[in-house]
Write a structure and sequence with these properties.
Distance between the termini: 70 Å
Order of helices and strands: HHHH
Shape: globular
Helix content: over 70%
Number of strands: 0
Structural class: mainly alpha
């Protein structure tokens, strides 16, 4: 391979790498916005199920409570994972999620 060929191949590789990085930097904000839009309805559905526990049973599925431990087991989550999920639900900007107790 000649020096000219190596330089040309290196230029193409670096140019292609820059193109990929540029496309990713454009796609990531769009993907994260789409993910946020897609996650809210799913999280809202989870919150609705837990709100039924609040209203109909007068109980809470908050982490550390008996119902919370049961939900954690049914979802096969660690205590930390369930706590993080609960926090995410409480921070989701829907009236059902934010009203969980």
């Amino acid at each position: 391979m000649s020096i000219c060929s190596r330089r040309h191949a290196g230029f193409e590789a670096s140019w292609a790498g820059l193109l990929v990085i540029s496309l990713l930097s454009l796609a990531l904000p769009v993907a994260s916005a789409l993910a946020a839009n897609d996650l809210n309805p799913d999280i809202e559905k989870m919150c609705q199920g837990l709100a039924v526990i609040n209203t109909e049973l007068g109980a809470t599925a908050a982490p550390g409570t008996p119902m919370g431990k049961r939900m954690q087991t049914e979802l096969s989550l660690s205590q930390a994972q369930y706590g993080a999920l609960w926090s995410l639900m409480k921070l989701t900007s829907t009236s059902t999620c934010s009203s969980l107790y």
